[in-house]
Amino acid sequence: MALPPPSSRLPDFRRASLAASRGRVGEGAGPRRRAGRSRPSRPRGGDAGAEASGDDDLVVFENKGRLRYFQIYIRYDVADGVKVCAKLSAPNTSTRDVGCFDGSEQDYGPDEFSYTCNFEYLPPLILTCLLPKSYPSKDPPSFAVTAKWMDGPYVSQLCEMLDTIWAELSGQKVVYQWVEWLRNTSRSYLWTDGSMTLGPDIATHNTDIRAIPRTKSLESVIPLMLSYRSKKRYQAFLEDLHMCMICLNQTKGSKFIKLPCGHLFCVKCMETLCRMHVKEGSVFQLVCPGTKCKASIPPYVLKRLLTKEQFERWDRLLLQKTLDSISDIVFCPRCVIGCVEDEDNNAQCPECSFIFCSFCKGPWHPGKQCLTPEQKIQLRKASGRMTEREVAEELRNIRELYKDVRLCPK
C-alpha cells in the first residue's frame, strides 16, 4: 500500500505534535525514551537519533506503523541578548486579528502600550518530526515547529526555511541540518539589530499549518518568559566559577551564597561569619561583608547557614536587642513580657495586667519616691527573706553596677 504524501497527514500530525509538546508527551503519544545531554551519536536507524548537539533534548515516541516519530527541544540561548518588544493591549479593549512580526516600530494607538525587555535565554523551540518510509530518497519529513512565545508569522518563516533547506538537500538526510539551522542561524533570520516585536493579538491568518505559535495573550506569555529566563540565569550561576571576596578561593556557584544586595560569598565563609556573630551575641552585625555594604542578611539565608539551635538563638537575641533598643519598652517583673512605659514611669503588663513602676520594678506608687536598691535589700533582710551573706553579696553587686553609671540629676 502506497504511503500518502506528507501533506495529507499534516492536520492529524499537527494535533499530535501539539498534544505532545504540552507536557513532553501528550495523551495517546505512547511510551517514549529520552536522550539527555550526553554527547550526540550519529543517527541509528535513520535520523531518529539525530540529536544534533548535546545541548538539545531528544524525545523519541513509540514508532507508529514503523514510522519514526520524535521531538527535539532546541535551546534558544542568545549570548548577547535579544530585545523583545511586546505590544500589549490596554485593559477592556477589543482585540484585532493583527500582529507585528517584522520587528519594526509601529504606532499601535492609545489603546495599546509596549513592554521591552532583554532576553539572553528564550524558551526552547520544539521540532517534531515524522519520518515517512520514503524518506530521504523521495519525501521530506513531516514536521511541526512549536514556539509557544512567538507570533504565528515568525514560526511560519521558520517552516518555510526548513522547506528551503530540504529543497537544497533533496534526497539526503536533513534533520541534522534543520536542528543546526534552528539553533544557530534562525535568530538572525527572524530579527535584525538584535530586536524583535510581538504583536498584541494572536494572529490566526496566513499561518503555516505546520507552525504552532503562542495561543495565549502576551500578558500571560511574558511572565512565563521572564520566569524561564530567571531559572536559566540561576542554572548558569550554579555552573559558573566565582571568586569569594573573603577567602579569595574560586569555586562553582553551587557552593556560593548570593545575597539580595547582589554580593556573593562562599558558603564556608558565610557560615563561619554568621555562626561567630550568633555565638558572640552581635546579631546586629549580621550584614553583608562586602566593602561599604551594610545590607542585612535575610532570615531565609541565615536559616541555611545556621543550625536549628543557632537560628533559634539568633531569633531570641534579635528580638531581645530590638526591644532593648526601644526607649519606651520595659519588661514586666512577673512574666517578662514587653510593655509600653508611660510618661509617669509606670507600665501595665498586657499579659497579667500588673501595673508596676518602670524604675524600681515594684507596684506602681504614684506620688511616692522609689526605694533605693539598698533600702529594698534592708527591707528584705528585716523580713527574713535574705541572709547576711546574701545581703553583702547583693550590695557588692550593686556597687559594681553603679560604679560606671551616672544617675539622672532629677
From TrEMBL:
Positions of the RWD domain: 86-189
Record field: compositional bias (Basic residues): 31-42
Record-linked PROSITE patterns: RWD, TRIAD, ZF_RING_1, ZF_RING_2
Catalytic activity: [E2 ubiquitin-conjugating enzyme]-S-ubiquitinyl-L-cysteine + [acceptor protein]-L-lysine = [E2 ubiquitin-conjugating enzyme]-L-cysteine + [acceptor protein]-N(6)-ubiquitinyl-L-lysine
Pfam families xref list: IBR, RWD
Superkingdom of origin organism: Eukaryota
Cited SUPFAM superfamilies: RING/U-box (SSF57850), UBC-like (SSF54495)
Segments for region (Disordered): 1-54
Cofactor: Zn(2+)
EC top class named in words: transferase
Keywords assigned: Metal-binding, Repeat, Transferase, Ubl conjugation pathway, Zinc, Zinc-finger
E.C. designation(s): 2.3.2.31
Keyword Nuclease: no
Record-linked InterPro entries: E3_UB_ligase_RBR (IPR031127), IBR_dom (IPR002867), RWD_dom (IPR006575), TRIAD_supradom (IPR044066), UBQ-conjugating_enzyme/RWD (IPR016135), Znf_RING (IPR001841), Znf_RING/FYVE/PHD (IPR013083), Znf_RING_CS (IPR017907)
RING-type domain: residues covered: 240-410, 244-289
Residue ranges that the Swiss-Prot or TrEMBL entry lists as coiled coil: none
Biological process per Gene Ontology, one example term: protein ubiquitination
GO molecular function, one term: zinc ion binding
UniProt entry tagged with the keyword Ribosomal protein: no
Residues annotated as signal peptide: none
CDD domains hit by this protein: BRcat_RBR_RNF14, RWD_IMPACT
Protein family: Belongs to the RBR family. Ariadne subfamily.
Entry function: Might act as an E3 ubiquitin-protein ligase, or as part of E3 complex, which accepts ubiquitin from specific E2 ubiquitin-conjugating enzymes and then transfers it to substrates.
The protein's name in its UniProt record: RBR-type E3 ubiquitin transferase
Organism this protein belongs to: Panicum virgatum (Blackwell switchgrass)
